[in-house]
UniProtKB/TrEMBL annotation:
Domain (Phosphatidic acid phosphatase type 2/haloperoxidase): residue spans on this chain: 127-264
Alphabetized UniProt keyword annotations: Hydrolase, Membrane, Transmembrane, Transmembrane helix
Subcellular location: Membrane
Name assigned to this protein: Phosphatidic acid phosphatase type 2/haloperoxidase domain-containing protein
Principal subcellular localisation of the protein: membrane
SUPFAM superfamilies per UniProt: Acid phosphatase/Vanadium-dependent haloperoxidase
Bilayer topology term: Multi-pass membrane protein
Family in the record: Belongs to the PA-phosphatase related phosphoesterase family.
Organism: Manihot esculenta
Keyword Membrane assigned: yes
Alphabetized CDD domains for the sequence: PAP2_containing_1_like
Source species taxonomy: Eukaryota, Viridiplantae, Streptophyta, Embryophyta, Tracheophyta
Amino acid sequence: MAWRNLVSWFSLQNLRGWFQQEGRMREVDLGAHTIRSHGARVARNHKHDWLILVLLGVIVIVLNIIHPFYRFVGKDMMDDLKYPFKDNTVPTWSVPLYAVLLPIAIFVFVYIRRRDVYDLHHSILGLLFSVLITAVITDAIKNAVGRPRPDFFWRCFPDGKDFYNQWGDVICHGKDSDIKEGHKSFPSGHTSWSFAGLGFLSLYLSGKIKVFDRRGHVAKLCIIILPLLAAALVGISRVDDYWHHWQDVFAGALIGLVVSAFCYLQFFPAPYCDEGWGPYAYFQALEESRSNATAGQTTNVLNMQAMDVEAVSLQLRENGNAFTSLDELESGRR
């Protein structure tokens, strides 16, 4: 009987140690949300968001195809529209490279270090929403306003000979594509795209490196200013190239910054929050994992208690049988 009690006690201790070890492993694995383990579920949860992104892309294409409003441009207005017709310092094809692909490359680098698919997915989704919503707003306003660019004269009259109709409006004889672009000055698309993408990146970095942690590390602040400085220089180049008035650049920067802030806060806490380094979805998944782990540990404890009760009952029954045998021996002696 003694060795049975000893075996049962050792088995209970081993089970307790195994369950405790399993609980510690679960705690360690709480933050492991990789593309392989959670990527498909995250994509399914946001499939409608990706469909909306496709719709926004189609709208942007349509807005670039249709003609803008051809605003009245009189002869007396040409004094401010005779700036040289120059090439772009920042080509249009380069804007998606630094405003979209560069931030995505940084997001992927962070994922390699942290293995958080929620952070990777939501940062890319938020960035694309920021850029495409900004593009829709910018192109819609461009087409509706139809403000002439500073170099409109040379777009409209490439040979320098100006013509006007009976109402004093211009009669352009330049390339149709140049004239069409000449009516898309307000707001600046280069600037709005730049601030939408790089502004989102600046907010993302400020949360990751905890710029506003109240410790006074100004070097962190310099890091998040770099993307904004790059976007500002792009906007300045648009004025220097005489493709935009300064008001166009200012409006484009404002649109890009506001939209990027809204899109970032849709997926991430504010950078000055204690949990600003991760997306909302990560902390929700972490809480669910902890709840499941706690529930599993509670179930294990209950099972342990049941096993203890069963072991005690078994011991009592064995002791009862021993007492019965002693009673029978004593009664036989009598």
